[in-house]
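P.,

For your records, the input lines for the assembly:
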Amino acid sequence: MNPRILAATTGRILRQLRHDRRTIALLVVVPSALLTLVYFMYADQPTPPGQPSTFDRIALVMLGIFPFVIMFLVTSIAMLRERTSGTLERLLTTPLGKLDLLFGYGIAFGLAAAVQAAVAAGVAYWIFDLDTAGSSGLVIGIAVIDAVLGVALGLFCSAFARTEFQAVQFLPVVVVPQLLLCGLFVARDQMAGWLQALSDAFPLSYAIEALQEVGANAEPTGTMWRDVVVVLGAVVLALVLAAATLRRRSG
Amino acid sequence: MDDAIVVRDLLVDRGGRRVLDGISCTVPRGAVTGLLGPSGSGKTTFMRAVVGVQVVTGGTVTVLGEPAGTPALRRQVGYLTQAPSVYADLTVRENARYFAALHGRGRAEADQAISDVGLARAASQLVGTLSGGQRSRASLACALVGEPELVILDEPTVGQDPVLRADLWARFHAMAAAGTTLLVSSHVMDEAARCDRLLLIREGRLIADDSPAAIRAAAGVDDLDEAFLRLIRAGEPGPATAGREAS
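Structure tokens returned:
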């Protein structure tokens, strides 16, 4: 990796995003709009005694899921565009290293996700009175790590897509099982053994558990830190695999 | 003569079909070498092999003294793909500055490359809003901005108006005079006359490798188009009149 090339690549990706005003608006507004729906869905639901309200429980998890899903999709399409427009092949004939490109995407979309997560968290805390025992800064930090996980998985999966149709199909294949088994719908320890094993293998489960730890504890817990390390490890693994699937030579 | 590119017995298969069938040739330094041939003759595949992005079946390609595709060569080789490969959602200037930065060049070089291809007035326009010809010139600017020692240009003048084409060819010769090696593909024969040296490929085989004057002399005609026709007929089985010139 070369810091100058990495910075130029990150800047280039952010500039592309800046020219796409509608995407920026969607990135910033959609999570807050969906949180609004969730708020009113549960507004009249009774809160079980001694437990967080249903909105608090779901909104907290949503803050981690939005950036993950959205950045996965955005990255898959962005990388596929690099392939189909020929810019990827051209980049690979320049001094750019594969990791410069992959980390460039990770940093650029990570920054976009930070803005998105901050706005969504602001709406959740200030407008809808989201209540978490731990700090909102930790919630936003974990949401950004979730986004970077989405970017890394998107970069890796885009290697297996030749067309936009295929790229979009990776959402139900890669993202939806992780959503179903992350503990949002059924608590992880109440699932059948084989489902728990699957859930343990999915990085999103750790991301969601980390958020739930912040929700339930005033101070960062050991479990939360372990979860953050697991997610970051999954990010590095996905980026290394993505680099391995980027071939400078083709047939 | 000092050669920038040395190709020996190059074999390339794509999609189960032999695309390049035993090509051996050299490209001299500091000159404009034309790669001529009809569409589908293997020009792009040959260029990809020189740049080092093509999986080859056999033979060797040596570029500036090193095997094609060696990491150090990526600083010294500029490649223009046939389809313009620039970012449609960035301006011409943003594209040029990005590719300049990849080669360790700055804003001044980026602006120079843009004006060299005649796009100074469109510099702040999004590439997606340019005409086809302008877009391919934006792509050309990005190939030249790193001031590479070897420039591989795949059909750089397609869709350009005659004045601009003449300007671009003058620019290529100025670069060659300054020591840059250029390999330029075209399927238009009137561009062949502008080259210092010509490689003619047909159906994956090298049919001619000489200067335009020598090719005219060998075929015995003044018109290069006609000369190539005779060389092709001479290489085919059946009655042949002209001698086959291949060095």
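Two observations worth noting. Confidence is low (pLDDT under 50) at residues 239-247 of chain B. The CA atoms of residues 150 and 181 of chain B lie 5 Å apart.

Regards
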